[in-house]
Amino acid sequence: MEFEFKSRYNIDDLLKIMKILRSENGCPWDKVQTHESIRTDLIEECYEVCEGIDKNDPEILKEELGDLLMQVVFHAEIETEQHNFDFEDVCNDICQKLIYRHPHVFGEGDKKIKADTEDEVLKNWDALKKASKQQDTYTETLESVPKTFPALLRGEKVCKRAARAGLPINNAESSIDKIQKLLSELSRRISLQAENGEDAGETSELFAQNQQILGEILFVFCNLNRILKIDGEKALTYWTNRFIMAFRAVENDIIKQGGSLDKLSSEEIDRAFGAL
After folding, report:
1. DSSP labels for 52-119?
2. Along the 276 residues of the chain, how does pLDDT read in single tens digits?
3. 80, exposed or middle or buried, with CB in 10 Å at 0-12, 13-18, 19+?
4. Nearest CA to 151 among 61, 69, 211?
5. Which of 75, 117, 162, 268 could form a disulfide linkage to 167, CB 3.0–4.6 angstroms apart?
6. What is the DSSP letter of 276?
7. Which helix (H) or strand (E) holds 210?
């Protein structure tokens, strides 16, 4: 397959490069890949795009968006070879979807829908999405949130859709009160287990009960994130990074004093890291 080298390439060139890589005389690795074998690559590229956004670095973002686009082209090429659909079909479908779900922009005549605010747009979007996916109940909208999402993200999206269904879960103070009650119950259970010397191993009933309570706590936190309009994934990532920085600072101080974490007693560890 002939290929023209250029100083600047476009999407047509990317499609052709992928065809060459997947061809009989192409790359030994690329031509044997399947949707399943590169599934993790797709997820990793999405996270790397997010890292480019978080770093506010246009160069990194440009590169990572290119890697993500390559994954889209890769998967589309696999389907093209199987005569199911091609990249143009992918583009057509997303264009059709955007036009359909923006009747306030693309609608004409009696199909024009008024949506002057962000809330009106989202309300219309959800209604159109529900209709296009033939979802007859709100439960179906909750079930349609992909189970492959990170648990925190999935929890927030389920809460968001439940709230739009009219569920009264929009009070931040009620959510905080529920979290406090659940934490108190968890603390009570842990204290009783310690007093009675009960085993809370992973196969025990106690473990299952604690896991259920903690799961509910995390779910209520997901709803609280939604109420406060906080991205839980971003908030947790930020604080995890801060913890690592603080941990490094404490460990560096210990090393400067000639010590080592693995040589400290549990009391010394508690004193050193208590502020964290």
Report:
1. HHHTT-HHHHHHHHHHHHHHHHHHHHHHHHTTS--HHHHHHHHHHHHHHT-HHHH--GGG-----SHH
2. 788 899 999 999 999 999 999 999 999 999 999 999 999 999 899 989 988 998 899 999 999 999 999 999 999 999 999 999 999 999 999 999 999 889 988 988 777 788 888 888 887 877 787 787 777 788 888 998 999 888 999 999 999 889 887 787 888 999 999 999 999 999 998 888 888 777 666 667 888 888 999 999 999 999 999 999 999 988 998 899 999 998 898 889 889 988 888 888 888 888 888 867
3. buried
4. 211
5. 162
6. -
7. helix 205-227
d(CA 182, CA 26): 58
Closest to 91 (Cα-Cα) out of 73, 104, 74: 73
Whole-angstrom CA distances from 62 to 43, 54, 55, 142, 257 are 17, 13, 12, 34, 44
Whether residue 272 contacts residue 254, with contact meaning beta carbons closer than 8 Å, is answered with yes
The amino acid at 63: E
Q: What tokens were used for 231?
A: 């991205």
Helix (DSSP H) and strand (DSSP E) numbers for the chain: 12, 0
